[in-house]
Amino acid sequence: MQFPCLGGLVAMLVTWAISHNPCFTWNLVLIRSRQSWCRTNRDATFKDTPSILDQSEETMDYVRWAERYDIFYEAAPEGELEFYLNAIDRCEGSVLELGVGTGRIAIPAAAMGHDVMGVDVHRPMLDRARLKSTAAPLPGKLQLIEGDMSKIDLPHKDFDLVIIPAHTLALLTNEHDQSETLMRCAEHMAPNATLIFNLFNPSDDLIHGDPDEMFLLGVVEDDESDVRHVLTGTNDFDTTRQVNRCTQVIETLNAEGESIDREELQVVFRYLHHHQVKDMLEKAGLRAIEVFGDFDGSPLTDDSEEMIYICRFK
Q1: How far apart are the first and last CA of the chain?
Q2: Are 38 and 267 in contact (CB under 8 A)?
Q3: Of residues 277 and 265, which shows the higher confidence score?
Q4: Which residues pair with 132 in a beta bridge?
């Protein structure tokens, strides 16, 4: 469903607010609900198990996503990047990131001196990550591998930390592949290793929301190009199949507030409830030693926007 008029209206409203209030910068645009932003960046292949979705619904244009990915993640939830980098910094061994995308986490981690292996099923994402990784020398070793995270079988099976950031587990749109991914994580973990991943909390208000309601994700300034990116989106939840078809829009404004580009991207994912995550972890031989509702370490509640799992072997 197209929303060109609404997208332009949101852009004009945000532009007016910024021009009339110098304090209204992109990092203060908090009127969006982070849990309303079903942000995603990667998909998985479905070779063995049929998806619960039609083939047309599985497809995402990852060439276009790779080009826009880093802009969207400039407006990621506060504290998310720091949370994962701090976890990596505490790790005294090797790190495996599943769904590495364009290297948003892996490259800074390698720059901090950590050895990181990143896996992603989509080559356009990895191509961009490789390009970004050449911008400056990396003290740590960075390996980027193309592969499906639900079927990985790497030679190295004793990682000290495995991470699946950015709701990436939800990009696998059937229960089998989600469960298989957690089992593959366990197979690649050292005995005392930790698995960390996060999903959005599917609250009743979120999953029963109006599919025609457009929400503001954030506003990102690009000082080098002297443009401003306005990020908006809509959700369309199917609560029977636990699926959301999310439309995310990026509208680019010039210094005069005129729209010079508009890109609409589609993403489909399958959300999980907390008890389902616990069951999948149990099946993989893992347990959650801590569960947070935000990246500041707040406990998980019904009103939390995130479900953040710190896991180890049972």
Answers
A1: 45
A2: yes
A3: 277
A4: none
Owning domain of residue 69: 4-313
Mean pLDDT, the chain, rounded, equals 84
pLDDT digits 0-9 by tens, 19-43: 433 333 333 333 333 333 333 333 3
Answer yes or no: are the C-beta atoms of 278 and 288 closer than 8 Å: yes
The pTM is what?
A: 0.82
Give the torsion through C-alpha atoms of 68, 64, 32, 77, to 10 deg: -50
Start-end of H helices in 143-294: 175-187, 204-207, 274-283
Which tops the pLDDT comparison, 76 or 122? 122
Residue 106's CATH number = 3.40.50.150
C-alpha dist (Å) from residue 47 to 146, 182, 187: 15, 18, 21
**Contact yes or no for 255/272 (Cβ under 8 A):** no
Sign of torsion over alpha carbons 295, 310, 190, 143: negative
Per-residue pLDDT for 233 more than 50? Answer: yes
User: By three-state DSSP, how is residue 123 classified?
Assistant: helix
Q: Which two tokens stand for residue 215?
A: 């929400």
Say how many domains are in the chain.
1
CB 95 within 8 A of CB 88: yes
